[in-house]
Amino acid sequence: MLSLRVARGSVPSVLLRRLLVTVAAGGTGFLLLAALGYALGHPGDPAASSARLAWCAVPFAVAVQLSVAVSRAEPTGRLHSGLAAVGLGRNVVPLLAAATTALSCALGSTIALVVYLRLRGTAVEALGPELPLPFAGALVLLAAVPVLAAAASAAFLWPRGTAPSGPASADAEDPDALSAVTAPAGLPWGAALTAIGLAIEVTADDLRHSTATDLMPLPGGLGSAAPTVLAGWALIAAGMILAGPAVVYACGRLLAAVRPGALRLLAGRALQEEADRIGRPIGVLCAITAGGLAASQLYGTGDRRLGPLTGFAAALIVLCALATVLTAALEARRTREHSTAALVQLGASARLLRGAVGLRCATVLAVVVPVTALIAQLAASPLGV
Q1: CA angle, corner 283, sides to 195 and 243, nearest 5?
Q2: Maximum C-alpha span of the chain
Q3: Range from 64-73, 151-160, 223-232, 300-309 carrying the lowest mean pLDDT
Q4: Rounded to two decimals, what is the model's pTM?
Q5: Facing residues of 217 across strands?
Q6: How far is Cα 159 from Cα 155, in angstroms, rounded to an integer?
Q7: pLDDT tens digits, 309-322
């Protein structure tokens, strides 16, 4: 009940972010139900049914990530004060965020069930025949996203260590805190995982020389792929995600290097401070983009056409990844409000602040876009068909 009251009093931007969570959970639930419907209609092909269910892990993961990002980005300053006034501790905020996330995801899962039941047995053959839907199985699949998203939100927001005595943005106002920002340690491990994945891709058997029994089915319309290919892509994606914060931090160091002016120094130090917050979502988006580019090079030729569910899943994954990056950027902007106000009081112009934002975005794009395209090209070139 408290989470519903908080939702009613939220500003439109917060409601929009929660709506995105509902859409992500609903789309993922729809894909899970479609996999269940396919299994019901093809009882003699358990391998294909299991593969369809396994591929739902990708939209499932990005939906949970978006839920966590939205929970982290919600302003909780006034909420902390209100809860403290009624005698509730700081541990209530993560639980309230988890309940709000669960409600948003449950709403999306309910909508997914209604839409699936309306479309089932119609022209959309991929949803499975109109057989009795097992209630227990459907309920377990639909409850997976709300439960795990709520648990992940509570885990990320749970207070750790001693609560700071000052405001949450004190570190952003303290120059010594800025100088104490340490570089994320994920770059060597991320580069190593990416290199191992590329090595596996290079040494994998050509798809033309693999028998049908050696291949694993891909989502509708993309054919099949060798297990070594999928393992290499998984390692490449994990490496890019792990290296994301370190790459963003390196962009900040690059901007602030070699006697920077006010613009470069402000943009570079802000990137270094925000590396942990926005680096991981950027890494996920880069991994998804690289996978899409590699798949388009491998399977984009010939008579292959994406199935309706595959296209829907691809659009859902891209939407969740983009929304997560934008949400993380909004969270970073909110944490900089006190620093921005202090800079304005010191005489910084709005043009300087806008220029710093544009320079940060341009620098990150200039680094991650060619790296992502290069990794996609290297991953796809040895396996061309």
Answers
A1: 50
A2: 72
A3: 300-309
A4: 0.84
A5: 224
A6: 9
A7: 888 899 999 999 99
